[in-house]
Amino acid sequence: MSIYPFWHTDAAGGGVHPIGSTSVDFADQGRARVMRVNEGVLRVYGEQGTGLFLGAEMIAPRGEHLAHLLSWAAQSRLDVPTMLDMPFYHPVIEEGVRTALRDLCAKLRLRPAPPPRSIDCGPGS
Question: pLDDT exceeding 90 applies to what percent of the chain?
């Protein structure tokens, strides 16, 4: 499911900026399946044009860990491509974050659409 475009107001500049979002379902996420906790969803948000990571909503396995990582990214004002350039280990629940960020990056028109069901775990993948 995707909501696009969406808008947010920049508190500092007062401007209005379009937002892109995307969701991932943990039903078919590898590590979640192995742990038998493969239920839940993660939705991520980014600013159109800049790629700034704006936040996330989730009901997900190990959600407290995902929220911790994503809150660091938001506090550091990272953009989505920069987040994707960081390593994602395998097999971990956090690979669901990578899946969501890849899709968001494509929806924000910052990188090509991700390959379907990719298992590449290197930086920038």
Answer: 69
Q: What is the DSSP letter of 79?
A: B
Structure tokens that stand for 56 in this block? 């996330």
Does the pTM of the predicted model rise above 0.90?
no
Q: First-to-last CA distance in the chain?
A: 22
Amino acid identity, position 77? R
Provide the strand spans (E) within the chain.
Answer: 6-9, 16-25, 41-47, 53-59
Are 58 and 43 in contact, with CB atoms under 8 Å apart?
A: yes
What the block records as the tokens of 91 is: 């097999």
Tokens of 57: 């909503």
Q: Which residue has the higher pLDDT, 7 or 117?
A: 117
Q: Residue 93 corresponds to which tokens in the numbers above?
A: 């629940």
What whole-number distance in Å separates Cα of residue 39 and Cα of residue 87?
Answer: 24
What lies within 8 Å, CB to CB, of 32 at 6+ separation is: 26, 38, 39, 40, 61, 93, 96
